[in-house]
Amino acid sequence: MKRLGLVGLAAIASVLALRTDVVRAQRPVRAPLEVYFIDVEGGAATLMVTPNRESVLVDCGWPGLGDRDPKRIEHVARYVLGLERIDHFVATHWHTDHYGGIEGLAKRIPIGTYWDHGVPETLADDPRGYQTLISAYRRANGGKSRALKPGDRIPLRDAGMPVELRVVAGGGKVIGEGDTAGPMSCARHRDAPVKDESDNMRSLALHLRYGKFDFLNCGDLTWNIEHKLACPQNRVGKVDLWQVTHHGAPQSGNPALVEAIEPRCAIICNGPRKGGDPRTFATLKKTRSLEGIFQLHRNVTSTPMDNAKTTHIANPEEKCRGEFLRMTLDPSGERYSVAVGGQMPTQTFAVR
Ligand SMILES: [Zn+2]
């Protein structure tokens, strides 16, 4: 080192400075927050990436089908986003379309922490299927997962502005349940005629907040628990972006919740023949706050009137390439856009 002398050191320093500049030029100081709605054809797989490049995958699609869904998730994580791992995986609930792909995915890309609403011994909805899939889940995570309940937070590093991912529902309960009732009675919204006892009602519901931007993903939470989130008190607040609950199935999408959260943009993670139901669409069309509705798939069983605009549908044909939808928050935190796949944004919205 001594022999290099001052000139040599200065030369090394200038090369290092130059290289740092090149890296800075390639990577903006604060990359935007992004949410990818990956097409798993009637399941769910939502990948959130913070400006720190911390990643949270909520649900991971179906098993089998030649690892179709793990491959699609890996494609987005590794090749679209350049991630080498997924930091957090959340299973909203124990239905095949939400965690079935986990073993295939864990073989393709390392996964950090696993979160769920608790691992029951049995599942009345699907006793045999559950034993097979929960064994695969345990093989993927070595039997280690952490249970979340309403009020918990998944720890994420601050990214310029604080970023918070909190659980607003889980295990059939909602955040703040039992607190004194607020001013909103919601008397006009009735309970569903048939009480849902399936694991859908125990879905984790996650609220992501970064700066002023709010995103809500309730998994497959059903009508009566959605109602508890909104009445007698709005437990969530208003949101910018809403992942329409339960693929847009009619057992969910309670107007009480939709009216309370006043989303500006709604994204339906449906399949060509699953979800995106005309009854849910009727609720969305009546929601005055909504400026844009996107779908992963055109519902091929309903009319164009009960589908989003063609420009807002990622996969118009049933035989599809599995195109995703992408939400990008502007680095200012004041605007966000939604795009189909890697295309230019289809629509831009103001953050409230
Ligand atoms: Zn589902």
Topology:
Elements lengths: L4 H22 L7 E4 L8 E4 L5 E4 L9 H13 L5 E5 L5 H4 L2 H7 L2 E6 L10 H15 L4 E2 L5 E2 L8 E8 L2 E2 L30 E6 L2 E5 L5 H8 L10 E3 L11 H7 L3 E4 L9 H9 L5 E6 L15 E3 L9 E5 L5 E6 L6 E4 L2
Parallel strand pairs: 3-4, 4-5, 5-6, 11-12, 12-13, 13-14, 14-15
Antiparallel strand pairs: 1-2, 1-16, 2-3, 7-8, 8-9, 8-10, 10-11, 16-17, 17-18
Helix pairs in contact: 2-4, 4-5, 6-7
The structure holds zinc ion (ZN).
Structural class: alpha/beta
**What are the distinct ligands in this entry?**
zinc ion
Number of helices: 8
Please identify the top-level CATH class. Answer: Alpha Beta
Describe the strand arrangement of the main beta sheet, using strand numbers: 6-5-4-3-2-1-16-17-18
Intertermini distance: 57 Å
Strand content: 15-25%
Task: Specify the overall morphology.
Answer: globular
Low-pLDDT runs: 1-7, 9-29
Tell me roughly what share of residues is in helical segments.
Answer: 10-25%
Please provide a written account of the structure:
The protein has 8 helices and 18 strands. With 352 residues, the protein is α/β, with parallel strands linked by helices. It has one domain (29-350): 4-Layer Sandwich (Metallo-beta-lactamase, Chain A), CATH 3.60.15.10. The protein has a 9-stranded mixed beta sheet, covered by helices on one side. α2 (68-80) packs parallel to α4 (102-108) and α4 (102-108) runs parallel beside α5 (127-141). It is globular. The termini are far apart. The structure holds zinc ion (ZN). Zinc ion (ZN) binds at residues 43-44, 95, 97-98, 220, 247. The site of zinc ion has 7 residues, from α3.
